[in-house]
Amino acid sequence: MEQKEMIDLLRQVASGTMDVEQAALKLKEEPFEDLGFAKIDHHRAMRQGVAEVIYGEGKTPEQIFRIAEAMKEKGQKAVLITRMNKESAIYVGEHLELQYDEVSRIGFIGEAPIKDGDGKIVVATGGTSDIPVAEEAARTAETLGNEVIRLYDVGVAGVHRLLGHLDELMEARVIIAVAGMEGALASVIGGLVDCPVIAVPTSVGYGASFGGVSALLSMLNSCASGVSVVNIDNGFGAGFLASRINHIERRTKE
Amino acid sequence: MEQKEMIDLLRQVASGTMDVEQAALKLKEEPFEDLGFAKIDHHRAMRQGVAEVIYGEGKTPEQIFRIAEAMKEKGQKAVLITRMNKESAIYVGEHLELQYDEVSRIGFIGEAPIKDGDGKIVVATGGTSDIPVAEEAARTAETLGNEVIRLYDVGVAGVHRLLGHLDELMEARVIIAVAGMEGALASVIGGLVDCPVIAVPTSVGYGASFGGVSALLSMLNSCASGVSVVNIDNGFGAGFLASRINHIERRTKE
Amino acid sequence: MEQKEMIDLLRQVASGTMDVEQAALKLKEEPFEDLGFAKIDHHRAMRQGVAEVIYGEGKTPEQIFRIAEAMKEKGQKAVLITRMNKESAIYVGEHLELQYDEVSRIGFIGEAPIKDGDGKIVVATGGTSDIPVAEEAARTAETLGNEVIRLYDVGVAGVHRLLGHLDELMEARVIIAVAGMEGALASVIGGLVDCPVIAVPTSVGYGASFGGVSALLSMLNSCASGVSVVNIDNGFGAGFLASRINHIERRTKE
Amino acid sequence: MEQKEMIDLLRQVASGTMDVEQAALKLKEEPFEDLGFAKIDHHRAMRQGVAEVIYGEGKTPEQIFRIAEAMKEKGQKAVLITRMNKESAIYVGEHLELQYDEVSRIGFIGEAPIKDGDGKIVVATGGTSDIPVAEEAARTAETLGNEVIRLYDVGVAGVHRLLGHLDELMEARVIIAVAGMEGALASVIGGLVDCPVIAVPTSVGYGASFGGVSALLSMLNSCASGVSVVNIDNGFGAGFLASRINHIERRTKE
Amino acid sequence: MEQKEMIDLLRQVASGTMDVEQAALKLKEEPFEDLGFAKIDHHRAMRQGVAEVIYGEGKTPEQIFRIAEAMKEKGQKAVLITRMNKESAIYVGEHLELQYDEVSRIGFIGEAPIKDGDGKIVVATGGTSDIPVAEEAARTAETLGNEVIRLYDVGVAGVHRLLGHLDELMEARVIIAVAGMEGALASVIGGLVDCPVIAVPTSVGYGASFGGVSALLSMLNSCASGVSVVNIDNGFGAGFLASRINHIERRTKE
Amino acid sequence: MEQKEMIDLLRQVASGTMDVEQAALKLKEEPFEDLGFAKIDHHRAMRQGVAEVIYGEGKTPEQIFRIAEAMKEKGQKAVLITRMNKESAIYVGEHLELQYDEVSRIGFIGEAPIKDGDGKIVVATGGTSDIPVAEEAARTAETLGNEVIRLYDVGVAGVHRLLGHLDELMEARVIIAVAGMEGALASVIGGLVDCPVIAVPTSVGYGASFGGVSALLSMLNSCASGVSVVNIDNGFGAGFLASRINHIERRTKE
Amino acid sequence: MEQKEMIDLLRQVASGTMDVEQAALKLKEEPFEDLGFAKIDHHRAMRQGVAEVIYGEGKTPEQIFRIAEAMKEKGQKAVLITRMNKESAIYVGEHLELQYDEVSRIGFIGEAPIKDGDGKIVVATGGTSDIPVAEEAARTAETLGNEVIRLYDVGVAGVHRLLGHLDELMEARVIIAVAGMEGALASVIGGLVDCPVIAVPTSVGYGASFGGVSALLSMLNSCASGVSVVNIDNGFGAGFLASRINHIERRTKE
Amino acid sequence: MEQKEMIDLLRQVASGTMDVEQAALKLKEEPFEDLGFAKIDHHRAMRQGVAEVIYGEGKTPEQIFRIAEAMKEKGQKAVLITRMNKESAIYVGEHLELQYDEVSRIGFIGEAPIKDGDGKIVVATGGTSDIPVAEEAARTAETLGNEVIRLYDVGVAGVHRLLGHLDELMEARVIIAVAGMEGALASVIGGLVDCPVIAVPTSVGYGASFGGVSALLSMLNSCASGVSVVNIDNGFGAGFLASRINHIERRTKE
């Protein structure tokens, strides 16, 4: 795509529609808008096929608002804000129509997306404490147009709880396995199914869980094939990737 | 599937085709063959849709041979052996028709697979030293029926080398980014494309690369979305997962 | 046990007492109750021979209450809640008859257990600061029907304090050694007795104790035989395991 | 016991059977024999109820021989040598009647032990490569008078392989779960049974397994209760502890 | 310089202008002023060519004030205070003319410096959250007499944002690359330019970023040449070193 | 000493002055007083030649008071309390005559000690922020009867500050080098003097200082001989050990 | 520069000298030559102002030869090969005129460079064992046209050895401080001079030096300003960066 | 001392005995001899009161010989060489009269030292495998004029072995506690005695001993006072420091 634009640009220059300096300028300045503290990437939506996402952590309420506003003005239909604290949600909510979920700390601005995924995404957790991360994944995926099935508290210490949901697991297009502590959920699921499994280690645990390191290592060392891993507590990353895999047919058809 | 078999079994018991003790026995014993030192999982091929894989590291030449032989006898058409050293390759090659590649340390027994993937898989490396891991990924994917494009030595220290291959990257169904040292390749690729990127950290490097930890952490912390990570040097895992994603349409159609 | 139930189920299907679909359904759904955020495992009590345990950390007061309530309704006689903060204790205490101990943060609902262990369990600590973890172990064991002897502040820097309690140590069926800092208590006790020693590293200490890592490594490297280790600060795990060992005769007799 | 001996000693002094200086001397010198480079602990056999064990690593063939010889001379019926390399086995075998197993690197001198354990010990491994550590555990337990059942290659990536052996697991008195990589075996077994589970992480794996750290952390963070952990590759420690638990009735009866 | 002073001193002694004991005393006591809790190094300004710097962290408001005051009294024209919290800024501001910037937590006392650097310094950040560290670097450099160009939020996940500023990068005398998470910014910039690049890892990120370790390792392993690294979040150090490099001509001419 | 007491005890038994059971009892119970949560070691004062020390961290104000009170009652002339927070100081101060220093968090009860050390102890710090740890060391040493010289803020970044105090360093009997960050102070001092140097790493620093790990490793790897290290921030340990070395003549003369 | 080339290209297209598709092609393919296993970056020499460098580790003798040969053919006057083992040196030396130094493992092909640096570079080491890394730095710098002064074995344990070379240190344009173990050399030098100091931690040491981590952390935490750090044992990186700083005037003048 | 020399020098300059330039030269060049690869510190013997020591690791046989030879020529009576491999011992032994011990890898050239220490040094080890490190400590101490008592294999798993040597421990002037694995020996000894204890962690162990880290952390966290720690396997450092403490009276008398 970008390659094509470059060729287009060259073509315009060749045909005299655009002069050289302007073309160079265009190449340099066009793709993003500079707010000083942030450079908004209006091309990315096209290039990467999704709504623009704002990572809320470390940004002030006002910064989040100004980025979201600039996106809306450029015609962005949907804006997803992750790691958004309550204070930011209140501030942004006063200026823009924001839907906010406290458990996953996800904010959403815009039209409800059409569920146009190729199949279903299953989000499973080892325990109850993993739910906030799982919800970040699930809601991200839903925002990006996916149908999500939640299987919470199906950890391996009672493997029959998981086996009781074989049907849902078997039918999934992608599975997101969210677990802290020993993180064995990803391996056991990975051994049962034949779809891609995205493992999300969580910082749930204490002592030698070292803030999620134990689950992370477990998942990286999974003896089951078809499992890949994202950062500790990175529900968004898992939901985003799952959506990408779940829209793979649609994308290639277009 | 397994669920269905269980229901079938129950049906046979209900209809009197099978008696109770035998059913229990069947449930317990059928799915794998016990060689004493290894339990071969003849169900997995069906359940996971792929050729059986033997992880060669830590197994004696004779153990590898006996497992492979047992698989062949059960009708397995293709057997993939990873992390196979030369000694094992020679031993197994004396008894079975083995194709062996020294760079990737991959052995293959059986019929050449049909390239039936939905699209193409790109395997890119940061440097020349990452090639053995990349080849493990590439050959695994090829063995599982995928068309693979290799882009080697396109690391970020000369970002134009990568940009020169935008076409191949843009058309890929899945990209495997293999890099050691600072592992930035995955992030830069992840920022350019809209398909899933599987990052493989390698143990290439010295000093503070800590045997691949530096690249691993880099990739887990990638600021680009759509990137997930497998274990250090786990070319097989990346190739296997890429194949799964690249067969996702085919699988659901069947 | 579960195996037996499966065979029973198969028998019922064979005899026509149960039809096939229901049997499959039963296999899938029966063992746990789904509260949405948690799946209560009513089988586990039978299968593992103990009262159900609720891990309180990361659960809201209401979640704890609802899980406990569901257990009581299913006929569970005793419910143990660990890592329960004061807020939860107050909330649950308003609805159910709860006994709560602030030091160990343990809550207990139900009838006082009969002390039916095979012998006595000794819980020893290196220092005064290790007492909360030790109490979690001791009260867990008591709740599960064990007689517990407490030997607190007998650390190795004054080895005669420990030697002064040789009698109690010698007579124990199991010993739980709780220590932070250098964690040498487990080794010294392990060298004196001939019963199993369960070592619990604690996060007590500062600087190079790294939140319990120092004690954990010490205990894992114990030069005394018969010592095994649980997670840092995992008093519950040690108490539970000690109880299991202390009921081993009873269980096999039944 | 030692306490009793001390009282006996005091009694002899009180009755005039022994004079004071000799008593002090006896207290000081009696319990071990000094070979210069090693102090053999002839009391330990009595005090800890087992054959004396020689840890072979870091000892020269001659040192091992001299320690074993001194034990035999003092009347020790059985001597177990762990981590014994082939060179040592050949040297010791020239002087004493040694049984040596290469896989587990265990040497044994003396009479075959009577299988006098209270029940059976199951030793399970995740994969084929874990067998050397498992054999160290199994043979240690056998040497100490236990009946051992081996379940090798039953890792969680194919959870049905494990479920196929529910009978053996259910009937075990103690289970030793040996696994490298993600070490999930201990959790899954721990969730199925109600006997003590001793987890042995192995150094099997590569990359982010960090020589067994991944499995170690996994096992320490096991969400299943009743699981405790020994050092990486410490098959001996697991076998020894399992034997202790499996002789607990016998011991208390004596 | 110091060497020269020593020779001067020796000369004075030789010529009788100074006697021996006084010379020894002078050597010992002269170079710093002792406030009890701090020894102010009045020589350093001369020896190292810069304004004295006070590292504010871990110092009380009063301590900072007293050190700054003593410097002013000795004739120091400019005092830079880093890691200064608001409380200290208020306290010091009541007694001395202080300029304070909250984002970078930098305080400045004295005359505005002349911009006498040889060229320009570019300060680039990967994201918005890295700005406080970048501002510490930028303001330090400005205080030391440098012209600074800020390029914020040009991280590698959208490499075109960076490429859009090639002109500024190409013309820089030194570049400071500030990034958290995967820290790839330094490598990509290092591959584009031919001036020294100072990489500053930041503690921005979560999970496996481990408080900046991920970015630190990434930068140390940079495959681009010409990159060196300072401590995590050490904006001051980067700004100081950049200034030193940017005054290198001036210094040698003097 | 203890050995002697045992012989005395045996003598009394032999002579009939004491009967056997009482002797055993005495051996077991005498050396410490049991407060339930703490076992006070009244022998230690004699055995180790110092005032009893209470480690205040992790103890409640009441626990500290009760331990101190019990010591006073047994005739202890001086009690030193380390890591004592203000709350505890106020509580204990209401019941006993306590001297409390906020910087070092040290409390002292009892008579001022006589300065009876063999020589002088120098306590040096790298920076101003290291002073609290240094004061813990200095006051501990003073409490134990030592003359202490403080050399604060003499870090190696201005090596002349240190060289200006060569006299004091040369005359010291023991030197305590307290430093955070890169901890080079210990090496530089160690290279200048010929007395024992006790290095105390502090948690002063940020980023890659990892809470004192950087200084700790630096000090352990010191290329200067005669340097040993205590735990991070362990001022007490350094002061105590320095006092022991500084009383070594006195002790042997007695 | 690259920006300028792009504008030139656009100009040629505008003037009709080049057509659009060829321009796009040129942009994509021109900058590097593809050997299959390596992409040689012929632009980099121009863009980065230095001879091309081949990192020899992990490359076969033949690969090194073929890369070097391709460079020579494209007109590269000087080729520097780092981490070159003896085997590679012999192989390459048979085909090309190679100068090889065994201590630094550096190979050089081409004309002797003119010493055109702005000043002198000092390379200092803490000990004798650091010399190989120091030589890699020194020879890299010399190859890039710098005058280098070597100060070896001037570690801080004998600070007067360093002070004896104050003249050379004071006159240096850049200093490279190479040290293992506690790595304090960089801080002490950094405190004495006012030029940039590049710190190179080495893997020299044992035990808690952890292969260079101790020195690395020390250097990152240096309390002296003006110090930056490269990877452990990265002599090349330090030499390259030092050369860049030492040619900064020359470069800006051109 | 050095301070005194400086004053002497100044006096000579003042009196005209020496002129200024020569004095400056003398200050700079006199204290060490430059062999190119090493700077021998002939002042250190005087300044630090001991024989010069050569650290053999990382030095070639010839380098060791040349340093030792230069020392002998300058009149050094005794030279101690640590970490000396056999090859070096043979080479040096051909040219100089060398005594070499293979276990401790210590070489010694010169006259037998007089045992002039104030008391005795005890060197204790936890096990047999710790002996090489212990011997490095013991022989270093003997070479420096100390009487050494060896207590080997007295680890805490059999605490009575240690208690049997209370007499020797009680009478020691300094104790060196050498232990690997869990390193508890230092704490137990530290709790029994009132002299300084120098703890030496060893790399003996496997798995979670992490090459001595476990013992190192244990020792740093020792709950016994009076314990300090040196680097892993640093027998020399412990022996050297012990000697320093054991000569403290002698030194101050002179």
UniProtKB/TrEMBL annotation, chains A, B, C, D, E, F, G, H:
The record ties this protein, via PANTHER family, to: PHOSPHORIBOSYLAMINOIMIDAZOLE CARBOXYLASE-RELATED (PTHR43064), SLL1489 PROTEIN (PTHR43064:SF1)
**Example of a GO biological process term:** 'de novo' IMP biosynthetic process
Gene this chain is encoded by: larB
Q: Which GO terms describe its molecular function?
A: hydrolase activity
Name of the protein: Nickel pincer cofactor biosynthesis protein LarB
The record places domain PurE at: 119-251
NCBIfam families to which the protein is assigned, alphabetical:
LarB (NF033503)
Organism superkingdom? Bacteria
Annotated coiled-coil segments of the chain: none
What species is given as this protein's source? Answer: Mediterraneibacter faecis
